[in-house]
Batch of 2 targets.
Target 1
Amino acid sequence: MTHRVLVAYGTKNGSTAEIAEMIAGTLRRRGLEADVRPPGEVAELAGYDAVVVGGALYMGRWHRDARRFCRRHRHELRERPVWLFSSGPLDPSAGERDIPPVSGAHRAELSLGARSHITFGGSLRAGARGRMAKAILDEGRGGDFRDRERISAWAESVADDLAVAGAR
Ligand SMILES: Cc1cc2nc3c(=O)[nH]c(=O)nc-3n(C[C@H](O)[C@H](O)[C@H](O)COP(=O)(O)O)c2cc1C
């Protein structure tokens, strides 16, 4: 059976959407169908066998679109395998240790019975929206800390889990 997976993401400056695309790319290479969507475009989860929800971190909070998505679709999500990710740290820390979910992501993890949560490094590039983003960039603290291999390895583990579930 081919699983159809939704990868939904909350982003402000686009880099979390790119992580969602990377995850979907790995899932597709594993023979799964994967749709990447901003939460606002998803009316219902019928037709999806599994869901990955990701959100950017801003001021210690999981992106609002990710939080809302998990709340709005909680009943359907509880009936499906769900994986969560956050993207944030603008340094190599995410690859060096397990960074626990912030409260909004942790609440979603518990409420939905998510299979796992992972924090990936983030990215902040010239042109990012917001005064604070510009200040961080001006101080030279921006950059791209997304580790494609780590993202791909995590997506592989999602595909592995689904392959086991499908074989049952
Ligand atoms: C104003 C501001 C606040 C941020 N706060 C956090 C934070 O609390 N924790 C964190 O890990 N990263 C934080 N970051 C880094 C962002 O999470 C990172 O740039 C992320 O990749 C942005 O995702 P997006 O491009 O999808 O919006 C912050 C960035 C900005 C500009």
Note: Strands lie at 4-10, 33-37, 50-58, 61-62, 82-87, 116-120, 123-124, 143-144.
Target 2
Amino acid sequence: MKTLHKYHLLLLLFLAILAFTELPQQYRTTEEVNEYFEQIRNNPPMLTAFFTAMPKGGDLHHHYSGAIYGETYWAILTESNGWINPHTLMTDTAGAQHKAPWKHLSELGSDSLKQAYLRKISVKDYNELSGPGDQHFFSTFAGFSPVASYDIPRGLQEFKQRAIAENVSYIETIMGAPDTAIRLSAAAMWEKSMTGARLSDSAAVSDTLEKVYAALIKNGITNAVAKFCRRQDLIHQQAAVDDSVFTLRYQLSANRNASPISVYRKLLTAFQAASMDSLIVGVNLVSPEDGEVSMRDYTLHMMMLAHLHRHYPQVRYSLHAGELAAGMVRPELLRYHISQAVMIAGAQRIGHGVDISHEAQCLQLLDTMAQRKVAVEINLSSNEFILHVKNEAHPLLMYYTHHVPLVISTDDPAVLRTDLTEQYVLLATRYPSLRYVEIKALVRNSIVYSFLPPALKEQKLQQLDKAFYEFEAALMKRMNAK
Ligand SMILES: [Zn+2]
């Protein structure tokens, strides 16, 4: 008995020494980084250097075409002798047919035209006098969409290189789901039975959705999707973006400002693709939430997602919801988008979530999101530009204090001419109550709440932890050498 005691005491002593010498070192380093971080908190250039070097995990809210700089689109148009309309600055690739005033870029290309194009398709030199920010932002897409798919591997490589340079190790980029040639003869009748007053009969809507689903499957949507997946995989291999430090995965999206059957067809395509291709890890719903059609059909879209979830329970989806601000729509229309995305559609993540405080049952909804771990993708630059919501008016801290998981993301980094580093600088300067350790936890969230499969997620988390260890050790070595 006595020997056992002695053995226990020795073991305890050994553990105590170990705890004192080994384990706290990393903790002490993190604490020292905390102190350093507070010293540079109000110094944006120092914060930029700090956050550029800091490992940032993933960017989970990232639109493919909005992440490629206008300069690249211009170069693609120039090299391929694409088209431009000098009056509207709309562009097209060489294969298309256009009449005057459209001209080939080789006939017109000049630096002033290029600058005008860059202003048209991004926030470059934007001045509020030229029109509302949201209209300008969403109009940029028409300016580059025809060129966006011309050379996808080049686009993927562009933002991969940029990601590596700022220590981002994962991107989950959103691309439009392809449309299929399948058209249904009963489409108009089915649309009628899902809209207007019929919407309130959820059982009947569900029944109609089942019919549309069966018809699309019968007409061969699965084959069309398989063909698309093979092409997408090939592009991914050609681009050669995945390596030991960087991983790229895709979400496929449907445009919510389209007719109900079109939205459904794209959503089904996206779900089917995500179920058969491991590179496609999720589904999304995009384009302005305050559009006439997207407002009208919002609840129907949420019901479509619930229905598709029953067919594809393993497919994950994030929904743009609550990308609205007071004054954009009538107040009663600000009260239900996030709650329906969570409660009806069952989204695993929410994009933006800016109008949460206007939700009818706001505090209960926050509790539910915290309990279900529904992460919110925070896009500070985007919300400032499109919604004019920033600083204390932004609900970031409201989510944070209610324990709703948050991830920091860019939305459309090239249109907004920003990067993930700048999003962290804004976070640190605008929300001084968030200490370095807490910001570090938000970075970790960007992998934890990604749609990566468990084994890859674990691998990415281990890499991230190691990268943080090295980042902090290097910073402290530098500080102590001074
Ligand atoms: Zn977005």
Note: The two ends are 54 Å apart (CA to CA).
